[in-house]
Amino acid sequence: MVQSFVSTNECNIYLIDIFSMNKELRYTAHHTAINDVVFHKQFDQIFLTCSNKNIRIWDANSYVELTRVEIPGVECMCVNVSIDGTSIVSGWSDGKIRAFAPKSGKLL
Known about the structure:
0% helix
């Protein structure tokens, strides 16, 4: 098995088996400026970032992306977590405020 790391222009890094071309996503990062970072005092094992067209929820111990919420065509300007942790509240460049479920990333 011969493997290689491959990076994309959207800051995704894959480990690819050269012969079978099977890929495994290994690392992710925002590819534009980060507009907001949030640490919730009751959920210190995670943190959130927002940038360009998405919100990402990260594991604070391993720095692995857990969930990604994407809204194409608009930029996420700010993000926060509700006090009870049941929703992610965000402000977007189209003037809308949107709330999402933390685990699934579905619009509430």
